[in-house]
Amino acid sequence: MIIKRKSLPLKLIGIEALSRRLPANHPLAQNIEEEARRIRAGENGERILESVFTKYSFPFEHYILHDLHLQSTGRFQIDTLFISRHSAVILEMKNIAGRIEFPKDQKQLTRVLENGKIDSFECPSVQLERNMMLLNDWFYANGFSIPIKGAVVFPRPQQSFENIRKDLTVLFPNEIPVFLRKPEETSPSLDSQTLKSVASKLSFSSNEYNPFPLIKNYNLSLSELITGVRCEVCGTHGMHAIYNGWGCNQCGHSDKYAHIQAVVEYCMLVDFKLTNSEVRKFLRINSRDKVVRMLKKMGLSYSGEKRGAAYSVNLKDLEILLEKKIKLYSEMIMRRPVRN
User: Fold this and answer.
1) Under DSSP, is residue 107 helix (H, G, I), strand (E, B) or coil?
2) N or C: which end of the chain has fewer CB within 10 A?
3) Which of 310, 247, 300, 314 shows the shortest CA–CA distance to 278?
4) In what order do the strands lie in the sheet with 108-112?
5) Distance between CA atoms of 272 and 278, rounded to whole angstroms?
């Protein structure tokens, strides 16, 4: 049973927004774009891992938790945790293209691309060992004793490997169900009620890491960003306010809800606290009353009255706003007349 699904990829959404709002000639533009590609590859890999558990079922009691963020003797993140009465199995996805080599006597992984480029990464065994240790500490602190196993998953069955470490289990997605269904050599360590309690507590304890605001992490200032409401059709920043939404001078596209993404991006990049004045500057809009109506419709919590009002959001609010945006666009598309 899946009891925790993967969260919206907020960091990826934020880093892609930062990449779009940096001028092409900015000194950090290339680094930010490379970071976005790296995170995007990781997210795509985790989606592949998540999809395995929507295709297969298991004939014994179990719980599946995706994208766990926990704190024990240190903070750690687990791509997927499969927990049964016998054990807890950590699965870590590594979406790394190219030929993979494990240099002897080094805690390193090397990948060789077709163009000959060589890149080195921390060996997945290091992350896996660290996560197993920290999860064991979490179990101990919460009064549970559960054997822990782990495996690293690569998404491409055609990928080649050299010198795989003996202490590292490497799987492809289609091998996961067989790996998890292998008969256990030991008796169950948990009864059904305790298993359910462990899974529930893990899900409840998961607290996503907050990487925002991003300009602080990269030592940037608001003045270095391209402001304005972005047109989803042509990518131009600077849509102007019209009677019922926003219009793009570049391509003529109109969008009723374009401001939602712009406000979310302000929060991710600049600050989780907003004032009417700051929002007007970022969206390039003059009407104070329009911003008041807009923020209230978005359901943001606020303190103070009139010109002293300050709005605030948290990570959950960002997820809600992005999901609301998707729903609003879906409804808008459904209402469009069908052309013959």
Assistant:
1) coil
2) C
3) 310
4) 118-122, 108-112, 99-101, 161-162
5) 12
DSSP codes joined into one string, 112-127: E-TTS-EEEEE-HHHH
Spell 138-174 as b/e; 16+ CB within 10 A means b.
bbeeeebebebbbbbbbbeeeeeeeeebeebbbbebe
State the CB neighbour count (10 A cutoff) for residue 305.
7
Q: Pick the residue with more confidence: 330 or 161?
A: 161
Encoded tokens for 46:
């985790």
Q: Tens digit of pLDDT for each residue in 122-147?
A: 889 999 999 999 999 999 999 999 99
Burial label, 90 (beta-carbon count in 10 A; 0-12, 13-18, 19+)? buried
Find tokens 């199995």 and name the residue. 89
> Domain locations in the chain?
2-93+131-205, 224-335
For residue 199, give both structure tokens. 């899974």
Structure confidence at residue 334 (pLDDT): 64
Residue of 167, 171, 6 lying closest to 79 (CA atoms): 6
Structure tokens at 254: 């109109």
Rg over CA atoms, the chain: 24
Q: Cβ contacts of residue 316 below 8 Å, gap of 6+?
A: none
How many angstroms separate the CA atoms of 110 and 125, rounded?
13
Tokens at residue 31, please? 């680094």
- The residue count of the chain comes to 340
Alpha-carbon gap, residue 44 to 46, rounded angstroms: 5
pLDDT in tens, 16-40: 999 999 999 999 999 999 999 999 9
- CA nearest 102: which of 74, 80, 83, 126? 126
State the burial class of residue 185 (Cβ atoms within 10 Å of its Cβ: 0-12, 13-18, 19+).
exposed
HSE, side-chain direction, 13 A CA sphere, residue 208? 20
Tokens 């970022």, located at residue:
282
87-119, pLDDT tens digit by residue? 999 999 999 988 999 888 778 889 988 888 888
